[in-house]
Amino acid sequence: MQIYYSQIFLKNYKKLPNSVHLKFEKQEKIFRANPFDPRLKTHPLTGKLKSFYSYSIDYHHRVIFYFQKESEIWFENIGTHAIYK
Fold first, then answer.
1. Which end of the chain is more exposed for a tag (fewer CB within 10 A), N or C?
2. Alpha carbons 16 and 33: distance in angstroms, whole number
3. What is the tens place of the pLDDT at every residue in 12-53?
4. Domain boundary assignment for the chain
């Protein structure tokens, strides 16, 4: 599986504290093995983001992503629930 990172994702990732970076790295390893592992709480989004999915980093932080192809995934954004707006 190939994961790509959008400019928005990279910009917002840099703003997060190191503690969230470490949690993200742990969750990304799980994601690479299985994007729908129950520990990630992966779910499809609705409304204007209906072509995207989200998974949890921790209680407050999420990653928004989409499948470009079966083995190609784009991480679109990262942050708190405010990224859904």
1. C
2. 24
3. 999 999 999 999 999 999 999 999 999 999 999 999 999 999
4. 2-84
Which percentage of the chain shows pLDDT scores above 70? 100
Look up the pTM and report it.
Answer: 0.92
Superfamily of domain 2-84: RelE-like (3.30.2310.20)
For tokens 């990630």, name the residue: 40
- Residue pair 18/63 in contact (Cβ under 8 Å)? The answer is no
CA-based nearest residue to 1, from 64, 75, 56, 52:
75
Task: Please state, in angstroms and rounded to a whole number, the distance separating the CA atoms of residues 60 and 40.
Answer: 13
> Cβ distance 32 to 3 under 8 Å?
yes
